[in-house]
Amino acid sequence: MRVSLKDVAAHAGVSVKTVSNVVNKYQHVTPATREKVQRAIDALGYRPNLTARHLRKGRTGIIALAVPELGNPYFAELAGAVVDAAAAHDYTVLLDHTQGSRERELLVTQGFRARVIDGLILNPLELEAEDLAARTDDAPLVLIGERRYDLPHDHIAIDNIAAARTAVRHLLDLGRRRIAFLGARGDRPSQPSHLRLLGWQAELAASGVAADEALVAPVEGWDRADGAAGMAALLDAGQRPDAVFAYNDLIAIGAMRVMSERGLRVPEDVAVVGFDDLTEGRYGAVTLTTVAPDKQAIARLAVESIVERLAWEGGDGATRRLHPGFALMERESTLGRRPAG
Fold it and tell me: Structure pTM?
């Protein structure tokens, strides 16, 4: 037999409206009343009908998350965090894989799921500002990822320049001076690879160290093979850095493989810092020092932005640019292996 709000209200000795306010997580309920209702919910085993709740509001209860690379562990970890954050608001997440294709990114932004989703969280790579400005779908859109857009959509992204400077500062403090940047692309100035390159340049300049452009290694993509190819190209050109700041952890892992093959020790010969704090980097033969974006905060802020926009009916809430935190996780690839105990 299904337990109703009326049953919970009778058990708790409060009104059905009060029970509804607690179930819907409204703020204007006293702690004592909330606790009383929660005890009744637990005792009776009440479970809200989420589908009916969303339908009453004209919603589907589904948020879409569109990311470019499901094979990249960073996006897999971020997707998991978004699913958890959405569940806290009784939303289900529909995952779209754009493969970093402009056509696919256009498709997900132009309302092809208009009757299915209540809002969209998008990590765009190829869309231009004019593409997003031409969007006609009125479902709330929240942008994540580090590419910059001057648009009236909430944007959740860490400060890439500051994060890159933190990584380079760590290497400089260790006495490294020939610091390579591995992961340059011929990208637009708004792209994260360019922003991280700017951070590399800025921190070197602030420390009075010449930014040697010969130590900037371009890559074709963002995977381990791209890091291996970029590192091999540097060494084949006669450039021997004493440190590498890699665009992401996968590139750093590929680069470290090539160093091992060439007889270079990490970190004795070359210290390495990555970016993303992937689980894989914590379990290699040499654990990876890396910049760790706060993925949980990125996910939570993105979901909350969608939920708040829905509450405003897409209305007058001011556009927000939110910068979740990051931390430098110092490990063996820069500090060496520490004695046991």
Answer: 0.80
